[in-house]
Each structure stands twice: as C-alpha cells, then as structure tokens.
Amino acid sequence: MKKNQGVSLVELIVALFIASLVFMAIFSTVNTAQRSASGVEKRSVAQQDVRGALELMSAEIQMASYNPNSLSNIWVDHTSVNCASIAGANLNYRGIREATANAITVEMDINDNGIIVNAGSDENEVIRYVYDPGNRFISRSTNCGNAQAFLGDTTANQNRKTVLVENNSAGIPVFRYFNGAGTDISANVVANPTDLTVGIPAIRRVQITLVADTADADVGSGVRRRIVYSTSVIPRNHFATVY
Fold first, then answer.
1. Strand arrangement, sheet containing 96-99
2. DSSP classification of residue 76
C-alpha cells in the first residue's frame, strides 16, 4: 500500500510557536501605532485650544485703552459689581486696570459711545483673564461678571479639560510687561502700578506665554505632551497721553 505522508507532532508545535511569534509581533506593532496616534491626536487638540486661546487674548489685550472720543473719567472699577462705578482713583491706569503675572484686566470703548459697560449695549468692554495655578486653568470674565473657564478647567469639570496650564510649575509668568525701551518692568508694575514711569501707565508691550500639558497622559508611557506658545502684544491705544 502507498504510504501517506503527514505532519509530526513536533512539526506542528514548531509551526504553532512560529505563528504565535508572528501574531505577537503584529499585535505589538498595531498597539504601538494606536498609542502613537492617540498621543498625536491629544497633542493636536491641545495645540488648537492653546493657539486659539492665545489669539483671542492677544486681540483683546491689544484693544486696551481704546477710547476714540478721548474722554476722561471713562474707565470703570473692575472690582465693582457689574462694573457699575467709575474708577475714581488711579485713572492713569486708563484701560489696563490690573496687571500682574497671573491676571490682567483691560477696558475699551469698542462701540464708540463714550461709555464703558452701558447696561444692555456694551458687551465685552471689560475683559479679565486670571490664571489659577491650583486648578491649572485660565478663566475669562466680561463686564465684571462671573469668571468662566477659558483654557482648561477646574478639577470638578474633568470632561471639559483638554489641557493643564502649567506656567506655575514651569516657573514662567503668563503675563510680562515692558516699557517703550523694551525693559521688563513687570516687578515694578506689580509693586507700584501708579508710577507713571514704571507702573501700569508705562506699559507699552505685554508678553503672553502659555505653557500647557495635555490633560490626559499617553497610554502606556504615562507621559503628558507639553505645549508652549508665546506672543507679544502692543496695546497701541495705551500709548497716548495720559488723561
């Protein structure tokens, strides 16, 4: 009788072992690719959010002190409810009412009616940005109203977070201030804001720097992707003679 040729048990075991190695290699490659794609996607979303935030901050801060009618006593007290009272003190601040490393408040008469925050008609004429190092986010408020999450969010709103603002841990201020000679006067602005030579009236350029990490770490490596964007803003309307 003709002898049938088959596969021995040893050959079958070797074949299964080789196949398992191939499948493991394929799985590892696919898994690595998925993790890499996830990390790239997180970084891309975070970059878009940080860049968009920086562009809006720049546009609004650039409008600080806009006063087309050159009126005096137009600026309001940003600490009052609904900006209802005129800033009787320190009118030399003009449209930059607050300037620290973590906060800035700017005012502008954008609708050219000679009034800052006329009830019901003047939207976004007082803008305040505040960096909260504890919760690692930046808030934005308008017309002395309640602050809203602007970049990042509080720990209570995890689902809305795409980034963690890490300026504090990086040792980089969100806002820095320079005079017309290009000298950094940030410390003087904070210590003596009323000084016409080194205080808020002397500000000619505001540097904004945003240091952010992705809110979620990469799967496996546990690494957060860091993003740093910076720009300088020239509030041209703040240059004019103080009135």
1. 96-99, 103-107, 126-132, 137-142, 148-151
2. B
Find out whether 66 and 109 touch, Cβ atoms under 8 Å: yes
2 within a domain of the structure (yes/no): no
Give the range of the structural domain holding residue 24, as residue numbers without chain letter: 9-238
| Chain mean position to CA 213 | 11
Residue 27 resides in a domain? yes
- Overall number of domains in the chain: 1
Q: Which has the minimum average pLDDT: 24-33, 145-154, 233-242? A: 24-33
| pLDDT (average), residues 144-161 | 81
Domain presence at residue 109: yes
In a domain, 3, yes or no: no
Enter the pTM of the model.
0.81
Which comes out higher in pLDDT, residue 166 or 242? 166
Cβ neighbours of residue 4 under 8 Å, at least 6 residues apart? none
